[in-house]
Amino acid sequence: MKNISISKRNTWQERLNRFTRHGDIPWSLLIGAMAILTLVVVIAIAWMLWTQSADARAKIGWDFFRPTLDATWNPAKDIYQAWPFIYGTLITSLVAIVLAVPISLGIAVFLAELCPERLRLPLNWMIEMLAAIPSVVYGLWGIFVFLPAVVTPVGEFLSHLSVLPGFTGTLFTGPISEDGTSRLAAGLILTIMVIPTITAISRDVLLAIPNSQREAAMGLGSTRWEMIWQVLLPYGLSGILGAVILGLGRALGETMAVTMVMGNANEATGSLLKAGYTMASLLALQFKEAVTPLHTEAMIELGFTLFAITLILNLFARFLVWQVARRTPQEARA
Amino acid sequence: MSKFFRSFVFVAVAFSFLLAACGTSAVPTATEAMPATQAPAATSAPASAATPTPLAPGSVTLTGTGSTFQFPAEQAYAEFFPGVDPAVVINYTGTGSGAGKKAIIDGTVDFAGSDAVLNPDEITAGKDLQIYPFLAGATVIAYNLPSLDPKNDPKLILDGKTLADIYMGKITKWNDPAIAALNPKIASKLPAQPIFTVHRADGSGTTEIFTNALTAFSSDWTAGHGTVIDWPTDKAGTGKGGNGNPGVTAEIAKNQYSLGYVEYAYAVQNNLPFAQMVNKAGNVVTASPDSTKAAMTDFANAFTPQLTAVIVDAPGANSWPIAGYTYIIIHQTSMTDCVKAQKLVEYIHWILTNPAAVKYATDLGFIPLPNAVQQKVLDTLGKVTCSGQPVHW
Amino acid sequence: MTRFQQLIAVNEARRSRRRRVVNAAMLSLTGLLTLMALVPLFWIIGYVIYRGAPVLNVNFFTQLARPVGMHGGGVLFAIEGTVVLAVLACLFAIPPGVLAAFYAARNPNTPLGIALRFSTDVLAGVPSIVMGLFIYGLVVVPMKHFSGFAGGLALSILMLPTIIRTTEEMLKLVPHTLREGSLGLGAPEWKTNLSVAFPAAFDGIITGFLLAIARATGETAPLLFTALGNERFDIGAIIQGGIQAHQSLFSIIGRIVNQPIDSLPLTLWTYAMQPYQERIDQSWGVALVLMILVLLIEIAARLWIEARKRALQG
Fold this sequence. Notes:
- The complex is a heterotrimer.
- By secondary structure, chain A is an all-alpha fold.
- Chain A has 14 helices and two strands.
- In chain A, a hairpin with a 4-residue loop joins strand 1 and strand 2.
- In chain A, helix 6 packs antiparallel against helix 8, helix 11 packs antiparallel against helix 14 and helix 13 crosses helix 14.
- By secondary structure, chain B is α/β, with parallel strands linked by helices.
- Chain B has two domains: about 160 residues, D-Maltodextrin-Binding Protein, domain 2 (3-Layer(aba) Sandwich), CATH 3.40.190; about 180 residues, D-Maltodextrin-Binding Protein, domain 2 (3-Layer(aba) Sandwich).
- Chain B has 16 helices and 14 strands.
- The longest helix of chain B is centred in the first third of the chain and has 25 residues.
- The N and C termini of chain B lie far apart (about 60 Å).
- In chain C, about 80% of the residues lie in helices and about 0% in strands.
- The longest helix of chain C has about 50 residues.
- Classes of the chains: A mainly alpha, B alpha/beta, C mainly alpha.
């Protein structure tokens, strides 16, 4: 009997099974390989952008990033200075963040703290639908509806502000063009586009705050608003900051809608009311057109810059969100 | 268990797709252009002979990209050429001349459309690239001046120097004396408004033609010429870029007091008023097929061995000063897929010579080649080879 | 009551009214902001329907584009292209994504697990246009032509982080008892994962797929340098031609994925920038179709989640 069972176990299938621990070793290798593949994709992106812009870095050097709006980007003469595009990306994202943060926080507070239970789900959905609308649809709606209806009048109003003391800077130098395509337009469209990102994360951050905090604040006699303003928001601050940075990341990388409403000019005043480029919109418009090798490389360097900025921002944001997530359960238990 | 099975089907199908894509890229001749079983028969026969076995409908895709200027014509060809040869699908996308040149140099397309000529670097990089002019077009200065009545008022008149000064940012208002002097009849209607200049945001042969013309017009034009340049008016905040001829036209249509350069065909189709120009001979001319043909005739003998010619600032009495050819670029000798090469040559021959094809293009506002030029182009087309074998239409 | 306490009480009364006013004002402001954020949503949806609906007809869904200046024509090429791209993206993203998620769920704290989470986060934040640059260099230049394959690959990288993250979260929600039961009965780990954990988490995972697909379907930027666009794309003709020439299924699929391809957002981008009124009208039609597609997938996914949550709670 014993002999028989041993001989059975020694069929090649059984041996294979034992050798692979019933398939678990190949399985571990397979899922490990896929995990490595994901890592490889990230490294490959960085590596490809870095190596393929080597010549541009060698030939152009730091002049590429020299912070002057009066910069030249002239493929006809092979001169590439990217600051106006970096500026365009930064200023439009800044406008978006400055406007979107208070709005998103208000919405997050409403959704997390005040909203009647019945409305919560549909409202959550609707806000998140804003993130689902494709970027080109924002652009289309932007150029034909939003810009003439909102941006042009707002821009005209802002251009009048520049005569007031304190507004004499170049940021509101007008006039805005009639169709409204401008850095301001891109900033406002981006505002709408980042609201869902910031809202969703800050709402989750607020919801993760333990009830003991709320009860303590209310118990001490604070109003609901005071509880929110003085307790919840400071408590979730780093998480909310993370949400803001993730929103910023989305704004920096947004391409199509911005390209459609930004006017596309290498403009030197830096005014919000003037046309401009962002890094992403320049890539969308000129990458396929690049003919001299240096032009291509300069553009890939721009891509690398964009990648690096969003990479750093995302890591920072994840770190902040992760910190909140790590801290909260412990204190909730305490 | 069935869900478990499903996930394996996913993986299996995914790999088959991967293999399919890799397989076809490795042997494009066999799988892409023709049925695998018939491939040996066709390749053994000389490519110039009529293909013995008819190809399956839609089995040869000729991919082209580039100039948005020739896009409407290519679109019409793509619609009608399969009626001539059902085996062929023409796929042309308008991405800009710069993109077209880059794509043909990189070998990512079968042919490129371009309004810009190849510069020496590109000829080196592309090795055996040959340019075929097949249509010409006029570039016009479209403007949006609400104070002018398009029906009753005469059209705006500009000369080369004034145009260059406007794009240099030296002339900034519509009522500038230089413009008023050229337009005595409507001088009182020129507003004291700033001039918005619109240009192409993407790389474009139209930009090349236009900047070539500005360079020829005025020694004050210092921004250079090419498919993408740095526009002086951008710096002042009065410049704006549009994506493609369509984008520029749209920008002009939407912004009062703006002006920009677009292809004649686009301006006509969109009912945009466009300016008359004072040409080199000193006459006021209107952009039209006739005045463009006059410019082409002026330069009929100016072709380089590569069949390119710059035809701006033409000297003839009635010649339109801002005109240019639009080209198809192909690899003259290094094509390896001979069925494709055959069909490509047939296609180019068709668009050059077929009366119906010529009519589609003229209906769209393009100007066909004068006979003398056409013969030169056909001579060169007859010299295309594939794997060392001559290819004939 | 001491004088001190009285003072506090008076102050308190004065302040409490101010506090109540501030409270009411700020709380209603948050509600107002929520309403404000919904304005663009309904504005966009409403306007897209208003402009897009009149364009939709049978031809719009069944014909290829016609040359400029000739009326009619449709966007069949873009609809087919969108489907092909979505299928390709799923095929490239789902198997590795799900398997990587198994790894992440099992080994969250190994160096590779941490590196995986790190790269998922990074991928989620990489601008989509950079994906396009990457695939252009990786696939288009070596293959020497633009293709649906390259487009699908670019979209798949975009989908990957969403798939990994949702799958991982869903797998973590599978009760330990279920897993342990299976392992205790002697099933190997891979079998437990695939036939117990995966089916148990299937609903949630599918939702993740759907959300990822919805986002990828609406993307344009990564397709600019990869899929390029193709107004003559016609699967019907390719299959018909292939059958007539007795081609294998394999080479027909190859032909479909191996040529430039269009998609709804790409078509929208090209059409919207054209000055021809008919093209602009059609671009609104494309926008409507795209929105219906994306929002339906999104809503379906969310309904699915809610239904499942309710089932679990009830």
